[in-house]
């Protein structure tokens, strides 16, 4: 009865027929004063004034005081919203169920992670050979507030040793600890690791990547010279060997190392942007072997998947925009032979049990084939329905492989696949307290401004009334070759359960249709991304699903840029804008941390006059205009975000507050001890989503 009462209460809040919050014309909020201290830069003869440059110093006392003042106003407003506590209750219930990862064997133990429900971080457990369960690592014991997380757990070949990265406050800068898997004693530690894997060479040590310690604030200072090191266990980190990155011509922003499962090859990836990489391979079994150049330029992506008997298998989009699987040997490193040829659908390959699993995206929906090492299709993997299948990774001697399946209305189920027979069985059904049968999730296609056909999946309650507009969140990303495939979110389930609509289009800039789709949304094609998103909103309005008074736009990181650009170009299109950890100052993004590596997608203001003018034309920070009625806006960021620094959000919020002519609130919510999103504790996830949803609903309705 309590659950039904809660659902009815939420539905009454969300449905279009609810009593809206009435607002009068003109600004109604007393925002903290943000001083203007203009700094002028000149680009190709054009002066650009930045009045809030001082907010880029996010560690100064002044900026700290500004953050506290903004949070004071924001949290006072959010705390008074009648919907806030209802959403906290709903989110807490929907997240309070046991979740486990796929198991994997290392040495004599089988490992997996589990969150019992509302634990801030998942705990890593293991089973011994007798099937007895014990805790291996519990990140919840590492900090009182749950903001310390671990990632990149990697075992030595024997399983006797394990290394993992530890992040504090969500930062990308991490420490690495090495643990003896028998005694659980930490036996070694290194510091200042960022954007790194951990790749063991035998039992003696591992490869990792790091930048030089930056001058000044490590959360904002530019980092553009990545190196690959080898750390021998028990030695001082200062004596670690630079494996790649010191020789002439070896200055790259991103460098990583990987050792093949058979321990024969060290694979080194090097790049200056987030698209395309050079590839080097070293034979670790040959004395004094050098790194061999396999891909000498960054014009394409190439990623080693597997090796056997001296043959190396790699996935690449070189001469294949939708990707293919090739093989080569080090004596002929440029002689690539197709194993799985390119098709009309985007390919992603994984390996397990002496087989490949070819995972194709067909209009963002998964199709999977099991393929032999010779490239022959063994079978099609039968999936439960339209959605996203992920996993299919394991070791060469595995006889079973695990994969998960979900979509926007179906919680993730974990399956076990018998590699020999192809039979799939449910290994672990979801325990999510969500009634999937009560919802529908349909894919439609709409036409963008230039005639391009774009897919979008729209999810909502099956009994949603069709004669009135509904509160709708339109979510997008559109960049960096990242594909938005159907996935279940317990947090978004709270929105759906209460009667909201959730729509996700696969706009250009992503990877849903290969490299050409990605490139169609980069640099001077970036407006295509915004037009695709605008057209998605117009479709939802024209179809009667929602209207401009009940529509919220949401996106994070590059998606935060998407929301910022669209809300400044079309402020009339939505009631609410929710840009999260966004890239919002397009003239200066590349001057912070590793931001210069995003230039493939964005270009830079110094690149050319044409590129400068294009960036200036859509940069959200530079396109907020006085006298414009902007939608209700809740900018969100973390004070420890060292990927997209919070200064982007600070400056955007300051401009909006100074120039807003409408009645809708413009606020910024700054999470303390939080980064770009990874490792966020469950408690904070609940609070963040409750604030976002309550803010959205409070600012929707006829009289907004």
Descriptive report:
The protein is of the alpha+beta class and 704 residues long. The chain is 18% helix and 34% strand. The strands form 9 sheets. Strands 32-33-35-34-36-37-38-39 form an 8-stranded mixed β-sheet, with helices on both faces. Strands 3, 4, 5, 6 and 7 form a 5-stranded antiparallel β-sheet that branches. It has a 4-stranded antiparallel β-sheet with strand order 8-9-10-11, with no helix packed on it. The relative contact order is 0.12.
Point out poorly predicted stretches: 1-27
The whole-angstrom Rg is: 25 Å
Largest sheet: 8 strands, mixed
Distance between the termini: 33 Å
Number of strands: 39
Q: Mean pLDDT score, rounded?
A: 93
> In one word, what is the shape?
globular
Which features does this protein show?
704 residues; alpha+beta; eight-stranded mixed beta sheet; five-stranded antiparallel beta sheet
